[in-house]
From TrEMBL:
This is Xaa-Pro aminopeptidase. One of its GO terms (biological process) is proteolysis. Belongs to the peptidase M24B family. Residues 6-142 form the Aminopeptidase P N-terminal domain. Keywords: Hydrolase, Manganese, Metal-binding. It comes from the Bacteria. SUPFAM superfamilies: Creatinase/aminopeptidase (SSF55920), Creatinase/prolidase N-terminal domain (SSF53092). Its EC number is 3.4.11.9. It is an enzyme of class 3 (hydrolase). GO terms for molecular function: manganese ion binding; metalloaminopeptidase activity. It catalyses: Release of any N-terminal amino acid, including proline, that is linked to proline, even from a dipeptide or tripeptide. Its cofactor is Mn(2+).
Length: 430
């Protein structure tokens, strides 16, 4: 792994939080992700399933975590199963975790080879009444591929029909949403790497630059600072491309007078950052660009102030909508009649700002976390309003990542990344 070792105390704490909420005489199992094929002998780069990483720190394929707080044998209350290495694997892929290394990474004392799983699992299931299955219940999930976790659940239901089933997801939604200090530190590193990339491209951008050239500059800076690369597929949208919310082609040349919207950020140790900045290709905002940009920035600043303990996510978005409506009227994009005659289910402001303002961020860019209960301290949210004006060939979005504090305004993990018009123009024209 490119990242520095993580203190396994983080994973010890995470497991304890999970096990404290398990039913008596229950087992929870978490599987690593598959390595997905592309074709012929090619595969996609391995990405660890975030739940098993959150609970164990194990960043290796073919890994299983088993938690059984009530196991009669105390040594079997936490077990990590890892792939046994051999000389052939070591030569072709590199050595895998030894048992001692697996303990050092996870803080779990009992380590078995993966080949021992079925036998040990059967023995422990004779002591258990309930098994927790780890299903993906994120509100934005749209998975069609059968995962390693899915296959395990299917097999387990056939082999152990007399056991009760429970869901790991509600517990994970609750505990993963509130970050430990170590997690916030890792996310700050990801944000700091993102800052380095952004400062690099401010001196690089000019009329005639291609979107993919900007992508390459970011990637260079990210990887040289111990990131695997982008936390999510990068959006680099010049001119009218910025009006496509999930624009991914990154193949257009920026022209003099274009704004360039960049929604991209670095990962670090599997933790995401999530940044959006919009800058003028020629290094100088026009008067109209300044008007729209300043409106978006004001909405972002006001929205950020509302991210405090006790805030309800859905109500927060309604309040942000009111602020945006006022700004759009000020820009001449809406008038009072538009607002008076709006459809309550699709307010007038949605014509120019059609997406949400904030989502949880952490081990996933759109992270697990409770959304229907009051916000809590140490939750980390994005703040990302935007105004999109196809008729003017312009879209502007601004985004930072912030930590909710027990008292006071959120702590901005991207506080050092330039966002003010004057600073951006100064850096682009050095």
């Amino acid at each position: 792994m490119k990242y520095s070792p993580i203190d396994n105390n983080l994973f010890v704490k995470n497991r304890k939080k999970f096990m404290d909420q398990m039913k008596p005489k229950s087992i929870a199992v978490f599987n690593s992700n598959d390595i997905y094929p592309i074709g012929a002998d090619s595969t996609m780069p391995f990405e660890q399933a975030r739940d098993i990483f959150y609970l164990s720190g194990a960043d290796q394929e073919e890994t299983i975590l088993l938690l059984f707080p009530d196991a009669m044998d105390k040594k079997k209350r936490e077990i990590l199963f890892v792939r046994e290495t051999n000389d052939h694997i070591a030569v072709w892929e590199g050595a895998k975790l030894t048992k001692d290394q697996a303990t050092a990474v996870s803080g779990i004392e009992t380590i078995y080879w993966l080949t021992d799983f079925d036998k040990i699992f059967f023995d422990l299931m004779t002591e258990a009444d309930t098994i927790y299955f780890n299903t993906n219940e994120h509100y934005r999930q749209a998975v069609e591929t059968q995962t390693r976790e899915d296959r395990f659940i299917e097999k387990c239901k056939k082999q152990y029909p007399a056991h009760q089933w429970a869901k790991s997801n509600p517990i994970l939604q609750q505990i993963r949403g509130v970050k430990e200090p170590e997690e916030i530190t890792l996310m700050q590193i990801a944000c700091d790497i993102t800052e380095k990339g952004f400062r690099r491209i401010l001196e690089f951008i000019k009329p005639g630059v291609w979107e993919y050239e900007i992508e390459a500059e970011f990637l260079h800076e990210f990887v040289r600072n111990r990131s695997k690369g982008f936390a999510y597929a990068p959006i680099i949208a010049a001119g009218a491309n910025a009006n496509v919310l999930h624009y991914l082609e990154n193949n257009r040349q920026a022209k003099d007078g274009d704004m360039i919207l960049m929604d991209l950020a670095a990962e670090y140790a599997n933790y995401s950052s999530d940044l959006t900045r919009t800058v003028p290709a020629n290094g100088k905002f026009s008067d109209r660009q300044k008007q729209v940009y300043s409106a978006v920035l004001r909405v972002k600043n006001e929205a950020t102030k509302m991210l405090v303990p006790g805030t309800i996510w859905a109500e927060y978005h309604k309040e942000v909508g009111k602020i945006m409506t006022s700004e759009l009227i000020g820009l001449g994009l809406l008038d009072k009649a538009d607002v008076q005659n709006e459809n309550p289910d699709w307010p007038a402001y949605k014509k120019y700002f059609m997406h949400g303002t904030s989502h949880h961020i952490g081990l996933n860019t759109h992270d697990y976390g409770e959304l229907k209960t009051p916000m809590k301290a140490n939750m980390v949210f994005t703040v990302e309003p935007g105004i999109y004006i196809p008729a003017e060939g312009m879209g502007i979005r601004l985004e930072d990542d912030v930590v909710i504090q027990e008292k006071g305004e959120p702590f901005n993990l991207m506080r050092n990344i330039p966002i003010e018009i004057e600073e951006i123009e100064e850096l682009m024209n050095k």
